Amino acid sequence: MSDGAVLHVRGRVLVGPEDVRDELWVVDGLVTFSRPTAVGLGAGAEPGSGSGSASGSRDVRTVEGWVLPGLVDAHCHVGLDAHGAVDAATSEKQAITDRDTGTLLIRDAGSAADTRWIDEREDLPRIIRAGRHIARTRRYIRNYAHEIEPGDLAAYVRAEARRGDGWVKLVGDWIDREHGDLTACWPGDALAEAIAAAHEEGARVTAHCFAAESLPDLLAAGIDCVEHATGLTEELIPVFAERGVAIVPTLVNIATFPQLAAGGEAKFPAWAAHMRRLHERRYDTVGAAHDAGIPIYVGTDAGGSLAHGLVAEEVAELVKAGLDPAEALSAASWGARAWLGRPGLEEGAPADFVVYAEDPRADVRVLADPRLVVLRGRPVA
Ligand SMILES: [Zn+2]
Questions:
Q1: Which end of the chain has fewer CB atoms surrounding its CB within 10 Å, N or C?
Q2: Which residues lie at CB < 5 A from ion ligand 1?
Q3: Residues 329-352, mean pLDDT to the nearest whole number
């Protein structure tokens, strides 16, 4: 939008799953539900995306459709590829791919690159960083993490809490090659000290966990969120629910487990069998977590081996797991924003939203084809 221009969106503005308004306006980059005074009645606005005529002292562009707050990818990695940190040009491409699919708020679940420069870029999504992954020595993907031993965990967690934007990311379990299977990476006392340190710094802690075995110590230590969470069991689910520990299932990523298992079968048959079991029950696991009331958020795990821009697919996966479409949408919009402490479509909030041609509550596949993406009040895609 040029300076002084006004964007008028009309149709169905989904302020919340049940809170639907007829229109919103964007003035000076902010959302308002009151017609700006310098703007006329907007006669002659065309359906779809089009420029209205000048009216009053401001140009008005009118767009019609169903409006959602900017989508949230709560598990995404910008600045990372399968081999580690990438350069700024590659990071920029990743962020633009996410943006163009409607993802305007990213919780970066660990990156080896310093992407702080993105905060200066008005045209790129907002990022909430978890710093760099913290893993046990030789127990994670090469070049990704600080690889350390338990005695140093609290100090590293405190440092990443200060570097990040309110989150710290641990690798809670990984294959133990001597053991030939997934095992927990950290003793309980080290976790308790480290998570207390993060909380003292005002940061929340999340952990990558595939297996069930890593979860009790993390729960006891006060973990705030678990990534993947394929190991949730009948015994653990009520504890997660009672404590409000969120999960980000990353089902698009979990779909690759059989492939991973096949690759590691010869050397690590027990691990491969374990991964297959976790994969087979993935929808039941997420469905049971949801039924128990565990908060669930959308995360694509883009940026390691997975491509960016898969938010629509992950929402569809959650529907497959048993969330109804409005709940799955909330996991990528209203609910996720509230969880991360960022506004949705509120009076005076930054105008970050996505317009669709059809109702995404009726069919979440609509998310794959946004009509217009508006970031900080400017149409960007
Ligand atoms: Zn990840």
A1: C
A2: 109, 301
A3: 98
* pLDDT tens track for 36-46: 986 655 444 44
Using alpha carbons only, give the angle 315, 317, 321 rounded to the nearest 5 degrees: 115
Residues 62-70 have a mean pLDDT of 97
**Residue 322 confidence class, pLDDT cut points 50, 70, 90:** very high
- The 3-state DSSP class for residue 188 equals helix
Instruction: Output the CA 43–ligand 1 centroid distance in Å.
Output: 48
| Gap between the Cα atoms of 27 and 5, Å rounded | 7
The CA 208 to ligand 1 mean position distance, Å, reads 7
* Number of neighbouring beta carbons within 10 Å of residue 336: 27
Asked whether the predicted pLDDT for residue 47 surpasses 50, the reply is no
Burial class (CB in 10 A: 0-12, 13-18, 19+), 268: buried
Gap from CA of 117 to ligand 1 centroid (Å): 21
Q: What was the pLDDT predicted at 125? A: 98
| CA 49 to ligand 1 centroid distance, Å | 36
Going from the Cα of 250 to the center of ligand 1, the distance in angstroms, rounded, reads: 9
Q: From the CB of residue 20, how many other CB atoms can be counted at a distance below 10 Å?
A: 15
pTM over 0.70: yes
In angstroms, what is the span from residue 77 Cα to ligand 1's centroid? Answer: 7
Distance 248 CA to ligand 1 centre (A): 10
pLDDT at 48: 44
Query: How many angstroms separate the alpha carbon of residue 251 from the centre of ligand 1?
Result: 12
Q: Which domains does the chain have, with CATH numbers?
A: 6-69+344-379 (2.30.40.10), 71-339 (3.20.20.140)
More confident residue, 278 or 39: 278
